[in-house]
Specification:
Blueprint lengths: L2 H9 L2 H4 L6 E2 L5 H10 L4 E4 L9 E4 H9 L10 H4 L13 H11 L3 E5 L4 E6 H6 L4
Parallel strand pairs: 1-2
Antiparallel strand pairs: 2-3, 4-5
């Protein structure tokens, strides 16, 4: 890989490569509903809506479904999203450079983070977004 290509990726911003269409679900929905949404629009996570302005967002991922529902043999129609979601979330700023996002993901042991502009979630950044930004 050229040094220039890596440098450009490292200094690109989260907003440059994030996925802008973010899908949401309420925590009181069943995991079966979450699976249906994720399969229908072919995504690997859903942001769980806040219950109010002073609450934090959560996230449910395919890994949560597999490890917390499938593995223990639970019925996805009887498990609610709030029971298996991760909350609160690690978020990144739209202006955060990808090299810092990658470092944060590694240190926090996460694969994705919502992009938060101080008022709203404006996108979601995943390790895949960072990976595919590398030009070789």
């Amino acid at each position: 890989m050229e040094e220039k290509a890596l440098k450009e990726v490292r200094f690109a911003k989260a907003a440059d490569v994030m996925t802008k269409n973010v899908a949401y679900i309420n925590g009181n929905e069943t995991v079966a509903n979450a699976i249906g949404i994720m399969k229908e629009i072919r995504i690997s996570s859903l942001i769980v809506n806040r219950r109010g302005p002073e609450d934090t967002w959560g996230i449910i991922t395919r890994k949560d479904v597999v490890s917390k529902v499938v593995s223990p043999g639970r019925d996805p129609h009887a498990v609610f999203v709030f029971e298996i979601m991760t909350k609160p979330l690690v978020m990144v700023s739209p202006d955060l450079e990808l090299k810092y996002c990658a470092r944060l993901f590694n240190q926090a042991g996460i694969r994705r983070a919502p992009v938060f502009d101080g008022k709203d979630i404006v996108g979601i950044l995943s390790n895949s977004n960072i990976f595919f930004a590398i030009e070789v």
